[in-house]
Amino acid sequence: MSEFINFYFIPGLILGSIYALGAIGITLTFGILRFANFAHGETMTLGVYFTWTLIQFCLHTLGLEMSNWFIILILMPISMLFCVVVVLALDRGFYKPLRESPTIMLVIASFGLMLMVRSAIQFFWGPQLKTVLPGIQLPMVFFDTIRIAPKHIWIILSAIVLIALIHYVLTYTKIGKAMRAMSDSQELARLTGINTERVVQATWVMGAALACAAGVFLAVDTQVETMMGFSLLLPMFAAAILGGVGRPYGAMAGGLIIGLAEELSSYHWIGDGALLNPGYKQGIAFTVMIIMLLWRPSGLFKGKVF
Amino acid sequence: MAVLELNSITGGYGDTTILKNVSMSVDPGQIVVIIGPNGAGKSTAMKAVFGLLRLASGSIVLDGEEITNTPPERVVRKGVCYVPQTANIFPSLTVEENLEMGAYVREDDYRPRIREIYEMFPDLAEKRRQAAGTLSGGQRQMVAMGKALMLEPKILLLDEPTAGLSPKFRGEIFTTVKKINAAGTPILMVEQNAKQALQIADHAYVLVDGENRFEGSGKDLLADPEIGEMFLGGGRANSNGGTGDAS
Question: Is B101 contained in some domain?
């Protein structure tokens, strides 16, 4: 039992939280700007590199002595801000001129941006692996059985806080409600007098901030490399589709389900061996996405069907 | 002075001309109805007011101010609210959130207005926390109208508010339209149910092939034998090309 929780369930939960945060941005862009944003993974990567640079700056240039957690907690909002600025600039330069164009052009533009941003990251920071937090952490033990590393507790708690924040914005603020309205019907939003450009900007802000957080969590859990965002793109899309395109709560649920499914698939449910070789983990998201598209394309939360 | 005037407007989508020299006017406090056969350009005339199509010639004047070819998001701010025939509510938002979105361009406190809307549509007050998409067809129309009224518009444009409703709900919608009008909002409405619409109309226009064909008070048009034959006679008057009468 403890093995199941420690090595399968908790990692699944962590991976799921990361997918969920990333998928919210994808589903919002899909719902409000009406295109699949391939560059979303690169926003995550960018957030990670900003954070890494800020950490190096604080620890080595300023010589600050701070605990790792504290420093990330302080620096993450700053790198979120950087991500938001970059993404808004990219929107202005690349997506805004195409706002009235067919979806396919926006998708291709985002594909191009994905390559450009990734190459820029490789150019400025180099392709080598880096780590955000050096050293090994001793896990904390609860009830003598559950062992969980402090960084994992920290990731799950932060994800909960961020999701609560998103819930608040979408449910109680004017701009959040307008985002949901525009995701329902862009045409009616315009006829109602909603400032659709403002809503579009709010969508980028929210998506970029969450992508940055998801990326940093992933980097804390693993390491920093230039392909990390891209490798998450498929599971994040799968999560968005599973939850229903344009449905942020669906994306949260979809992210958790896919994260858990990936990790739990290699548990020895039957007999002694893993049910599925961990090497095939990546395939789970793809399978879920295909099944969902065949069985119920509108997703769990009745999203849009394109 | 008329609240809204369409002065010989000509225009359409792309290269096709749908409206040819159409003129109309709505005076304060009036219900004005546009009737005509399918494809006559009734909805198009309404869309022209709302800046949804570019006019080749003619002008649209709101309260003395020309608003020809003003984009919809600006027309709203000038006090024209438009309820499209379909997709006129945000289905995943609650009833109350729909009303709040209707007040999006308002800077002042719109809470009192929401209470007024609930007084006008008591059904909606009960369902304020329910997703608008889960309501019945008639109630959705109420949400759509309530949402449009949040701005206390100078004029309300309704595009076939009874389309797709059962006869029972249809009557309810006509009663509601009269109620809204009695509260002081002039209404320009496109209708397929010509007979019922003419009964509540102060003035009506008949469009055929994108041109003004007849106009007159609701009563006069109801009594006119030619119009009776065209739109009101037999079952043809109320047949909406198959979609309108589905209940």
Answer: yes
**Interchain contact, A188 vs B87, CB within 8 Å:** yes
Cβ–Cβ contact B102 with A under 8 A: yes
DSSP character at residue B80: E
Q: Using CA atoms, how far apart are residues A243 and A237, in angstroms rounded to an integer? A: 10
pLDDT-derived band at A66, boundaries 50, 70, 90: low
B87 touches chain A (CB under 8 A): yes
Average pLDDT of chain B is 86
Would the pLDDT of A181 be above 80? yes
Stretch A274-296: mean pLDDT, rounded? 80
Q: Which domain holds residue B10?
A: 4-79+153-236
Interface test mutation site (partner A, options B46, B50, B81, B104, max chain A beta carbons within 10 A):
B104
ipTM entry: 0.83
Report the percentage of chain A scoring pLDDT > 70: 93
Q: Do B104 and A185 touch (CB under 8 A)?
A: no
CB–CB contact A192 B102 (8 Å):
yes
CA angle B222, B140, A244 (to 5 degrees): 140
- Residue B243 domain-assigned (yes or no): no
The reply to whether B179 and B227 lie within a common domain is: yes
Beta strands across the sheet bearing B19-26 = B19-26, B4-11, B55-62, B65-66
pLDDT band at B244 (very low <50, low <70, confident <90, very high): very low
**What's the token pair of residue B148?**
């449009």
B50/A193 CB distance under 8 A: no
Q: Which CATH class is domain A2-127+148-295?
A: mainly alpha
